[in-house]
């Protein structure tokens, strides 16, 4: 009887990934492996201007000199970078105006995910820039947005149509040699999203992108750039699911955000890449560099993430708080189960006076997984009256998983205040019994309690996304963590 | 007969606490179980509810004609057994609304009923809140978190009202309550009395029984029910104290 | 003897080959084996670099680049210890063990046996006279992997202090270990201490090994402490050395079932001080409290590394480190709690609080938790800030001048650690030193045991701080 909760956890943690299916779309590949020629091929294929090729090549040469980082609390199998396709595009590269022109297979995929473009378009008013593999297939609401001067398009289109903006800001937040995976991305990125919100414009709808890895052995190298000009506001949502695969797939994305004076950017992610099976076979390697800069005074960048997927996650959405009175926020729920590994957290670099940052991280570990929070709070000399508050809680479900907290705090200004708190807990038998006595079975009870534990973060998601997030979380809740 | 307990022996870590409890409860009745501290009152409540901490070594508990000892906790709850906790646990981040809605719908599903619509559910919440004079909006409050002792107990009776159980076991619902809160809690319980359900009130003090008048009073002592009588037994106990029982038992 | 900088590992390897005979003249076989491993470890890992996780905030390159005299055997002629040393804590009655320039002061004396049966003396003597005791513990607790200075110490140290407390013994008064440094040249000293406390016993240990003259001494000392079943150790480390000194001290505590440890590291002055405490809770019910206080100014740096390894269930640990940093001072805290699988019912707490007094002072704090068991209560907190402005205002509104108000608050901040000290006389003394330190009245002569200093000036306080 005493083992009951463990049995429940075992049961709860053993259901299969629900989004494991493969869409059959004709795919065009670049030759396997990474050489200068691969990069020239990608650049030529995308008909890029010269500066893009230079950017890529420079990054490639930096990458050659770099070593894969090993400081994270992760055990990463050796990756054969020459055994990866660095470019895959749906062959029917369309110029679509209506959904009828979209590959029906693709539409089915979205339907399975419950995010059919049609529904989204008609009911929610969400503009969707859907990315399958690497090339943007369909962009909606462009007209509505363009009336406000908002640019929301694929990265490739931005390179073609707004080269000056791309040139000015690309690599300005995440330099091409920032880290191993950022350099790799900078060399070979295929596509992604681009958003520009002009001065004083409040983007009336949530901008949203659904990513999906779809071709076997295809590295995914998305690149997103969001620029909020002075006084602008935008809320951007990124969500992803991936089909079931046995071979590991590498995903090394870059997201750059620039917030100018008085601007605000909210970036929300729900990440549910294929985590591998119960034995830890397969699953996505998610090595992502996400960084925003609060460049102007009074600017604000807020990251919210719900991480339930990927075999290995290496991800630290960060804020450089350059402007005075700028604000950085990071809200995260990270769930790991079975053999998943996550090393995730945030960096808040305070440069501006009165800059403020908040980090709320809720880790949930189950099975034999390892879940680490790693964060840096740096207060530089100039950052008078800077404030940081960090709270990093861990919830352990089962006695074979790990929950770790690695905060780094560097303070060089006497007027700053930095506070870090962390706790580790488990779901108590009393809580489970209480719920069960009210007629709620143990699985739902765990779900309920975990949801409550994560509520502080979930409540930061935009309404449209909260449902999706809760659904994804509750899939892991009903099927994986409770 | 709603509940029948037959020669129930139960304990924890090999230590026997209940040593042959016999009890019969019919629909429409209110029973009070009294006794000094540490005689197994709370254990009895936990065992009926299905707490796995305790091992049942002998005897049976029959509810609505079937033995429930093999049933998991939630199934007993769905069958209609409600336990009002002596120390309700805090569940951070889980709102009472969400909690109750999940509970109610799971119970309804078990009974083959459709889930309540959002509107119907909220209406029911409002109605039942009045019963225990809860004014605050519960939607934003987490289950028992930051509640005062009185609020926690009111919340237990509120949940009882929401769930409408057939058998309610109220474990020391009166402990830690001031007289106003006690009155509110008791009024709530009285309003829920009907010919179809039964209530078992577990208490150390006679005070509560002035407000919730029992049909039958039992005295639990050293793991057995040693005396059963009408409500006047409670008064007698109050007057003579538990020493009386002890002496009488030792005298045997 | 050699005289060279310390930043070249190949030199150490050469010295090792040349001097092993001298260094290891009393070795038990185990230590000989460890020395060889140590030099190999050193050869592969090298000396600490800023890229090493445990050294990322403390760059020791400058200290290693200075030339130091290094002796592989005791180089001193007949010492009159009484002449150069008198304990500065009045009324503190202790069993005193003295080291001079890294060597046991009474080098020819036999191990001393106290009435309780406790044995104290030099490690080199213990190697000869009690080899089986040494063999059973030496090198069992300190890990060389990832700790280059522990490897260096293991390879080269040949003297230090040995304490053995038998089972069921309460040592009647504290044992005080002192290392006096009085040499005209910069010295590099490596000492190795071994403390064994038997079952149900209790030992109070006051460790002030770092009283230097004004040269740039470099101490790399390592202490292994075995605490037997249900035994208790109170360990006090006091540091008040000159601004040129480098003190690296690592203490490796190994606690058996129901054992208790209270450890205190009080750093009042020093050039670079690094205290490493490795605490392994090896048996059920073990309990460790690790306290630290650092008050630094000028260009001083303290670095506290605390690694608590919960290797058994039902253990508790608590860390509290507090620091006040003035001028250009730099404070570093590396905390790491490891809860191993199956170490259920662990309670671990970790706290690091810092006050920065200037914009040039800085703090790096890294309170880590690494947890592999689910039924645990672990929490940690770290703060960096300044004196509470509301409290300042409150005090000033009561007529207390700004300077005194600051002082009071700083004192109150430090008092939380000082108040945990169990030996009353020592607590009062440290309390006094903290007050003086905060007022800028503490000189290194205050705790220094050398006779080069003027007697203390009486300290007059405007307000009675003890009432706070």
**Gyration radius over CA of chain A:** 22 Å
Shape of chain C: globular
Strand content of chain A: 25-35%
Distance between the termini of chain A: 19 Å
Going by helix content, strand content and strand pairing, the class of chain A is: alpha/beta
The domain tally of chain A reads 1
> Any idea how many domains of chain C?
2
Strand order of the largest sheet of chain A: 4-3-7-9-12-14-17-20-22-24
SS elements, strand count of chain C: 22
Mean pLDDT of chain C: 86
Cα gyration radius of chain C (Å): 22 Å
Helix vs. strand class of chain C: alpha/beta
The biggest beta sheet of chain C is recorded as:
12 strands, mixed
- Percent strand of chain C: 35-45%
Shape of chain A: globular
- The low-pLDDT segments of chain C are 447-468
Could you give a short account of the major beta sheet of chain A?
Answer: 10 strands, mixed
Give the quaternary arrangement of the chains: heterotrimer
Would you mind describing this structure in some detail?
The complex is a heterotrimer of chains A (482), B (252) and C (468). Chain A is of the alpha/beta class. Chain A has one domain. Chain A contains 12 helices and 24 strands. Chain A has helices spanning 4-12, 36-45, 50-65, 104-113, 117-124, 142-147, 155-161, 163-169, 180-188, 429-437, 442-458, 463-481, and strands at 27-29, 88-90, 127-132, 135-139, 151-154, 193-197, 207-212, 223-228, 233-241, 249-251, 254-259, 264-272, 284-294, 300-307, 312-315, 318-321, 327-336, 341-344, 347-350, 356-366, 370-379, 387-397, 402-411, 417-426. A 10-stranded mixed β-sheet of chain A has the order 4-3-7-9-12-14-17-20-22-24. A 6-stranded parallel β-barrel of chain A has the order 13-15-18-21-19-16. A two-stranded antiparallel ribbon of chain A has the order 1-2. Chain A is globular, with a radius of gyration of 22 Å. Residues 1-15, 91-96, 118-126, 132-138, 211-218 and 478-482 of chain A have low confidence and may be disordered. Chain B has one domain: 3-Layer(aba) Sandwich (Rossmann fold). Chain B is built from 9 helices and 12 strands. By secondary structure, chain B is an alpha/beta fold. In chain B, 39% of the residues lie in helices and 28% in strands. Chain B has a 6-stranded mixed β-sheet with strand order 6-9-10-3-11-12, with helices on both faces. A 4-stranded antiparallel β-sheet of chain B has the order 2-1-4-5, with helices on one face. Chain C has 468 residues and is α/β, with parallel strands linked by helices. Chain C has 2 domains: 2-282, no CATH class; 390-468, no CATH class. Chain C is built from 10 helices and 22 strands. In chain C, strands 1, 2, 5, 6, 7, 9, 11, 13, 15, 17, 19 and 21 form a 12-stranded mixed β-sheet that branches. Chain C has a 10-stranded mixed β-sheet with strand order 4-3-8-10-12-14-16-18-20-22, with helices on one face. Chains A and C meet through strand 22, strand 23 and strand 24 of A and strand 21 and strand 22 of C. Strand 23 (402-411) of chain A pairs antiparallel with strand 21 of chain C.
């Amino acid at each position: 009887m005493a083992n009951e909760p463990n049995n429940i956890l075992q049961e709860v943690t053993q259901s299969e990934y629900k989004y494991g299916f493969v869409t059959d779309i004709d795919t065009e590949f670049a030759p396997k492996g990474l050489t200068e020629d691969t990069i020239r091929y990608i650049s030529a294929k995308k008909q890029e201007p010269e500066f893009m090729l230079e950017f890529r090549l420079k990054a490639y040469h930096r990458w050659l000199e770099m070593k894969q980082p090993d400081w994270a609390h992760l055990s990463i199998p050796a990756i054969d970078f020459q055994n990866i396709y660095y470019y895959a595009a749906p062959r029917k590269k369309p110029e679509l105006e209506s959904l009828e022109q979209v590959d029906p297979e693709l539409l089915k995929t979205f339907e399975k995910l419950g995010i059919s473009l049609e529904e989204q378009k008609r009911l929610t008013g969400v503009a969707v820039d859907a990315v399958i593999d690497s090339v943007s297939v369909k962009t909606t609401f462009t007209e509505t947005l363009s009336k406000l001067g908002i640019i929301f398009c694929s990265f490739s289109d931005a390179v073609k149509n707004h080269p000056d903006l791309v040139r000015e800001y690309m690599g300005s937040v995440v330099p091409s040699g920032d880290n191993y995976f950022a350099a790799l991305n900078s060399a070979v990125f295929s596509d992604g999203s681009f958003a520009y919100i002009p001065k004083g414009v409040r983007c009336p709808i949530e901008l949203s992108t659904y990513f999906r890895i779809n071709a076997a052995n295809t590295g995914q190298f998305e690149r997103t750039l969001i620029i909020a000009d002075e006084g602008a506001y935008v809320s951007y949502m990124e969500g992803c699911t991936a089909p079931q695969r046995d071979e590991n797939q590498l995903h090394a994305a870059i997201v750059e955000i620039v917030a100018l004076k008085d601007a605000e950017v909210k970036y929300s992610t729900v990440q549910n890449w294929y985590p591998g099976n119960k034995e830890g076979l397969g699953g996505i390697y998610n090595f992502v560099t996400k960084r925003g800069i609060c460049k102007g005074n009074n600017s604000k960048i807020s990251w919210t993430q719900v991480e339930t997927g990927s075999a290995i996650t290496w991800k630290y959405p960060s804020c450089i708080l350059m402007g005075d009175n700028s604000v950085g926020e990071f809200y995260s729920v990270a769930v790991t189960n079975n053999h998943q590994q996550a090393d995730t957290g945030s960096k808040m670099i305070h440069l501006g006076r009165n800059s403020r940052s908040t980090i709320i991280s809720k880790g949930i570990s189950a099975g034999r997984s390892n879940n680490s929070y790693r964060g840096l709070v740096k207060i530089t000399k100039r950052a008078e009256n800077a404030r940081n508050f960090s709270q990093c809680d861990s919830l352990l479900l089962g006695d074979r998983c790990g929950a770790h907290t690695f905060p780094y705090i560097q303070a060089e200004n006497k007027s700053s205040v930095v506070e870090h708190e962390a706790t580790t807990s488990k779901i108590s038998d009393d809580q489970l019994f209480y719920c069960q006595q009210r007629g709620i079975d143990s699985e739902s009870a765990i779900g309920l309690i975990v949801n409550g534990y994560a509520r502080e973060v979930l409540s930061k998601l935009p309404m449209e996304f909260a449902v999706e997030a809760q659904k994804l979380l509750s899939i892991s809740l009903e099927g994986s963590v409770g | 007969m709603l509940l029948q307990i037959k020669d129930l022996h139960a304990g924890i870590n090999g230590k026997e606490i209940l040593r042959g409890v016999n009890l019969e409860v019919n629909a429409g009745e209110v029973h009070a179980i009294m006794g000094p501290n540490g005689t197994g009152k709370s254990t009895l409540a936990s065992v009926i509810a299905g707490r796995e901490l305790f091992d049942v070594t002998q005897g049976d508990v029959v509810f609505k004609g079937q033995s429930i000892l093999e049933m998991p906790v939630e199934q007993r709850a769905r069958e209609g057994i409600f336990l009002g906790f002596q120390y309700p646990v805090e569940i951070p981040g889980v709102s009472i609304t969400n909690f109750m809605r999940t509970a109610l719908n799971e119970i309804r599903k078990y009974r083959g009923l459709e889930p309540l619509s959002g509107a119907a559910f909220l209406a029911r919440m409002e109605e039942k809140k009045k019963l225990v004079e809860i004014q605050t909006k519960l939607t934003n409050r987490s289950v028992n978190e930051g509640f005062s002792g009185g609020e926690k107990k009111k919340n237990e009776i509120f949940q009882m009202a929401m769930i409408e159980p057939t058998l309610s076991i109220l474990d020391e619902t009166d402990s830690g309550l001031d007289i106003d809160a006690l009155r509110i809690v008791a009024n709530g319980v009285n309003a829920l009395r009907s010919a179809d359900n039964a209530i078992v009130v577990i208490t150390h003090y006679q005070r509560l029984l002035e407000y919730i008048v029992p049909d039958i009073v039992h005295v639990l002592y050293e793991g057995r029910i040693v005396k059963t009588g009408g409500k006047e037994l409670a008064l007698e106990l109050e007057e003579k104290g538990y020493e009386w029982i002890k002496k009488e038992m030792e005298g045997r | 003897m050699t005289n060279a900088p310390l930043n070249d590992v190949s030199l150490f390897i050469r010295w090792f080959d040349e001097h092993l005979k001298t260094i290891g003249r009393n070795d038990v076989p185990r230590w000989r084996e460890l020395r060889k491993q140590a030099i190999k470890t050193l050869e592969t890992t090298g000396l600490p670099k800023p890229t090493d996780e445990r050294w990322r905030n403390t760059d020791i390159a400058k200290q290693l680049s200075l030339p130091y005299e290094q002796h592989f055997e005791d180089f001193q002629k007949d010492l009159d210890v009484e002449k150069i040393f008198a304990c500065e804590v009045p009324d503190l009655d202790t069993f005193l063990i003295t080291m001079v320039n890294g060597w046991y002061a009474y080098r020819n004396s036999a191990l001393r046996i106290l009435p309780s049966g406790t044995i104290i003396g030099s490690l080199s003597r213990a190697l000869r006279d009690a080899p089986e005791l040494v063999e059973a513990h030496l090198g069992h607790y300190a890990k060389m992997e990832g700790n280059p200075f522990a490897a260096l110490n293991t390879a080269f140290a040949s003297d230090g202090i040995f304490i053995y407390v038998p089972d069921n013994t309460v040592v009647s008064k504290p044992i005080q270990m002192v290392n006096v440094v009085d040499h005209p040249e910069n010295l590099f000293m490596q000492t190795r201490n071994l403390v064994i406390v038997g079952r149900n016993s209790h030992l109070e240990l006051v460790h002030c090994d770092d009283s230097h003259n004004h040269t740039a001494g470099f101490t790399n000392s390592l202490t292994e402490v075995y605490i037997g079943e249900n035994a208790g150790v109170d360990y006090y480390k006091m540091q008040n050395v000159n601004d040129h000194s480098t003190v690296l001290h690592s203490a490796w505590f190994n606690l058996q079932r129901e054992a208790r440890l209270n450890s205190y590291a009080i750093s009042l002055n020093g050039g670079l001080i690094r205290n490493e405490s490795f605490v392994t809770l090896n048996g059920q019910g073990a309990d460790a409290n690790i306290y630290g206080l650092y008050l630094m100014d000028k260009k001083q740096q303290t670095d506290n590394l605390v690694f608590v390894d919960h290797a058994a269930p039902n253990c508790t640990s608590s860390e509290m480190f507090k620091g006040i940093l003035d001028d250009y001072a730099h404070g570093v805290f590396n905390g790491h709690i490891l809860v191993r699988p199956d170490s259920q019912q662990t309670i671990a707490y970790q706290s690091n609080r810092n006050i920065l007094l200037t914009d040039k002072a800085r703090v790096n704090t890294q309170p880590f938790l690494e947890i592999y068991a689910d039924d645990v209560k672990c929490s940690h907190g770290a703060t960096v800030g300044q004196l509470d402005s509301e409290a300042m205002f409150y005090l000033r509104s009561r007529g207390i001048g700004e300077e005194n108000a600051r002082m009071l608050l700083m004192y109150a901040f430090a008092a939380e650690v000082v108040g945990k000290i169990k030996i009353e006389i020592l607590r009062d003394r440290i309390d006094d030193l903290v007050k003086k330190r905060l007022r800028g009245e503490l000189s290194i002569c205050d705790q220094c045991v050398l006779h080069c200093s003027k007697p203390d000036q009486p300290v007059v306080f405007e307000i009675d701080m003890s009432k706070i």
